[in-house]
Specification:
The chain has 92 residues and is of the alpha+beta class. It is built from one helix and four strands, in the order αββββ.
Length: 92
């Protein structure tokens, strides 16, 4: 775990030095009530959570901007649909 953390911090340092934007993904549990921030999330500028929650026999997709450094955002889950026209994020 310590080696993993050091490697990730090194990666963050290098992307900052290179002046690039990096998109990294991570997988966690699907329950929006129990999101546990990882230590590495403190190093990132943004944390966007995607959910695919079972609701009876169907599933509901949602998105949540958990953290967006330097920008204001609505601290809430919003519906997300994916279809042949693309991705649609519903408003409030």
């Amino acid at each position: 775990e310590l080696a993993r953390r050091r490697a990730m911090l090194s990666l963050f340092d290098n992307t900052h030095k290179w002046g690039v934007t990096a998109l990294m993904t991570s997988q966690q549990e699907q329950d929006p009530q129990t999101h546990l921030s990882d230590v590495l999330e403190f190093e990132t500028d943004a944390v966007i959570l995607l959910y695919n929650i079972r609701n009876g026999k169907s599933r509901k997709r949602s998105i949540e901007v958990f953290k967006m450094r330097g920008s204001s955002h609505a601290p809430m889950l919003v519906s997300l649909t994916i279809n042949s026209k693309g991705i649609h994020v519903s408003g409030r």
